[in-house]
């Protein structure tokens, strides 16, 4: 499974390419690829070799150590923010377990998390997670710069969005299905984030994305392959141009190992405004200009509206132009 190579069905940007520097031709064309990927499929794939196999292996062992803890210990990571705490032992997604590490670029924040899991602390865990999260952060920042640039939105606004973002590293473990158990790891959904950077950490496939033609397609796992997905908030930011990425996880019953994946999720810590550059005659303003991200999470939690467009429209839509 994991080592099969197929042609990637989604646009790919090679960040390991030396020529990929702001201002170069390669960069300008990558910006276009990023935007097209976001508008058509809600995602693009980046090749990024800075994480590398050895850090990947270290993070996998950190995950094994973390998820090997008793459920009561893991359940101590709670959060008032939706999907930021421990999620596991859920009847409709029995294969899935996850834990969120808030503010993972900060070493003290990683230590705060580790102290909940290991009262005596766990420096090795913190160092690995912190190093890994910061590298994923680089991908997040580059991806956002590319999208902003391709829309001609002022780079200062991009900086502001990055600076006013809260990051969460969600660590996920999926066990293989038993006997005739269903292979569903996670049901189809879009993330509530601005962007989510997803990494299939231990080389086991499972992530599937609904492409623009409506067909579910898998993304091959590799240590250097990361999927940049648009979440609901990015659709609002783009005044409806970006399509949030619809994805799901399927865990093959042929594989006997646990599957580990991570997601670097970004949320706006307060409010953002839809850039003026994205509003014109062809694209009249579709949403209230100011978007309050945590309020949206709260709205989702209360309303439980599953359909993405209905939920965005109900939360901040201003016209009757449904898609
Ligand atoms: O495990 C994966 O590959 C994706 C996880 C995911 O979609 C999520 O946590 O929202
Ligand atoms: Fe997701």
Task: Itemize the secondary structure elements and their pairings.
Elements: E1 12-14, H1 25-40, E2 43-47, H2 52-67, H3 71-74, E3 96-102, H4 107-117, H5 123-150, H6 155-163, E4 165-174, E5 184-189, E6 195-200, E7 207-210, E8 216-218, E9 225-230, H7 232-237, E10 247-250, E11 259-268, E12 271-273, E13 290-292, H8 293-303, H9 308-316
Parallel strand pairs: 1-2
Antiparallel strand pairs: 2-9, 3-4, 4-11, 5-10, 6-9, 6-11, 7-8, 7-10, 12-13
Bound molecules: 2-oxoglutaric acid (AKG) and fe (ii) ion.
Residues 189, 191, 247 line the site of fe (ii) ion.
Task: Describe the fold and architecture.
The chain has 323 residues and is an alpha+beta fold. It contains nine helices and 13 strands. The chain has helices at residues 25-40, 52-67, 71-74, 107-117, 123-150, 155-163, 232-237, 293-303, 308-316, and strands at 12-14, 43-47, 96-102, 165-174, 184-189, 195-200, 207-210, 216-218, 225-230, 247-250, 259-268, 271-273, 290-292. A seven-stranded mixed β-sheet has the order 1-2-9-6-11-4-3. A hairpin with a 5-residue loop joins strand 7 (207-210) and strand 8. Helix 1 packs across helix 5, helix 2 (52-67) packs across helix 5 (123-150) and helix 5 packs antiparallel against helix 6 (155-163). 2-oxoglutaric acid binds at residues 170, 172, 186, 191, 198, 200, 206-207, 247, 249, 261, 263. GO terms for molecular function: dioxygenase activity; metal ion binding. InterPro entries: DIOX_N (IPR026992), IPNS-like_FE2OG_OXY (IPR044861), IPNS-like_sf (IPR027443), Iron_ascorbate_oxido_reductase (IPR050231), Oxoglu/Fe-dep_dioxygenase_dom (IPR005123). It comes from Arachis hypogaea. Pfam families: 2OG-FeII_Oxy, DIOX_N.
């Amino acid at each position: 499974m994991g080592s099969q190579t197929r042609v990637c069905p989604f646009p790919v940007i090679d960040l390991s390419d030396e020529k990929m520097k702001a201002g170069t031709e390669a960069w300008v064309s990558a910006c276009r690829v990023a935007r097209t990927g976001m508008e058509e499929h809600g995602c693009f794939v980046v090749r990024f070799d800075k994480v590398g196999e050895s850090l990947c292996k270290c993070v996998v062992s950190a995950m094994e150590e973390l998820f090997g803890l008793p459920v009561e210990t893991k359940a101590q990571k709670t959060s008032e923010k939706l999907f930021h705490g421990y999620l596991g032992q859920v009847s409709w997604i029995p294969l899935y377990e996850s834990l969120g590490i808030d503010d993972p670029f900060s070493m003290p924040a990683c230590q705060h998390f580790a102290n909940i899991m290991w009262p005596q602390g766990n420096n090795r865990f913190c160092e690995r997670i912190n190093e890994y999260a910061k590298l994923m952060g680089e991908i997040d920042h580059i991806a956002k710069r590319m999208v902003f640039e391709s829309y001609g939105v002022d780079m200062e606004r991009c900086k502001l969005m990055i600076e006013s973002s809260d990051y969460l590293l969600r660590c996920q473990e999926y066990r293989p299905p038993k006997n005739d158990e269903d292979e569903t790891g996670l049901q189809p959904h879009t993330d509530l984030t601005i962007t989510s950077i997803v990494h299939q950490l231990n080389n086991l496939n499972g992530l599937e994305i609904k492409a623009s033609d409506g067909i579910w397609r898998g993304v091959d796992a590799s240590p250097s392959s990361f999927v940049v997905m648009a979440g609901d908030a990015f659709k609002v930011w783009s005044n409806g141009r970006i399509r949030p990425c619809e994805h799901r996880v399927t865990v093959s019953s042929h594989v006997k190992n646990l599957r580990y994946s991570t997601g670097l999720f970004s949320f706006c810590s307060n409010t953002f405004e839809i850039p003026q550059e994205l509003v014109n005659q062809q694209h009249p303003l579709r949403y209230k200009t100011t978007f309050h991200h945590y309020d949206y999470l709260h709205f989702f939690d209360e309303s439980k509206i599953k359909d993405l467009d209905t939920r965005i429209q109900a939360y901040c839509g201003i016209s009757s132009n449904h898609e």
